[in-house]
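Methods, example record. To illustrate the input and output format used throughout this study, we show the complete record for LysR family transcriptional regulator. The sequence lines were provided to the predictor; the line carrying structure tokens was produced by it.
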Amino acid sequence: MELRHLRYFVTLAEELHFGRAAERLHIAQPPLSQQIRQLEAELGFELFHRTKRSVQLTEAGLVFLGEVQQIFKQLQQAIQVGQQTSRGELGQLVVGFVSSAAYNILPTVLRTFRSCVPGVRLELHELTTDQQLEWLSTGRIDVGFLRLPVEENTYSWETIFQESLMVALPEGHLLANQSDICLQQLAKEPFILFPRILAPGLYDLIISLCQQAGFSPAVTQEAIQMQTIISLVAAEMGVAIVPASLQNMQRIGVVYKNIQQVSPKVALAMIWRSSEKSPTVQRFLEIVRQASQQW
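The corresponding predicted structure is encoded as:
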């Protein structure tokens, strides 16, 4: 039994006239009649009562028609799902991100993607840069947002956002009333910083800035997430140098100050496996690129 036999049957059931059905199907009437007889022979029951004046569905034919219409409906749905999946409009996407991304580009990216591709379910994981590289290698995430540099050549990446560094001070700090901070003023301050392994590029940049100002920062407390670093600053455990977008966190007890010295921008990159072929991932990358033009 072929799919075209079922189409012939449904068309004849709708028209109840061999001539009109043949015309709709763009075939001659004798081949249509022959195909219907072959279908009935294969099924083992009659689909139509035929007379010289009329064609009517048998009781079995009527029931069979309902089932075949369901088959065609499911087939159409399957085609639609396949087309949407091939365009990256259905499925699931697992995204990793460093905590600071939640305060700059991530909300816009997610809002835009969900608006453009509502059929894709997003799964989000807050991960450090080194964790994202590990999860990408094992397939646990599809796309990441992390801090550069990335040395592994198994990944593709693009810089999508750049921002300055700022000093985060406790609200009651002696320097809190200054409009900006000379890093040399922090030479004797206790610093709160993340372990280097978590984001070597950003870590090295912070250390280099301090060394250019004539001192090595005295790191008295380490924390993994940026939110934790800011919370420790608010608790007056020390000072920190952080990406400027952390201001959007609006943590009570912390003030942010510009750095007097000209400092390089810190980059946030989008990363994915170079071998990635998923249409859903490609659609996500496309949307992020479009959104990044507004930043």
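Annotations derived from this record:
The domain at 91-161+267-292 is CATH 3.40.190.10 (D-Maltodextrin-Binding Protein; domain 2).
The chain has a mean pLDDT of 91.
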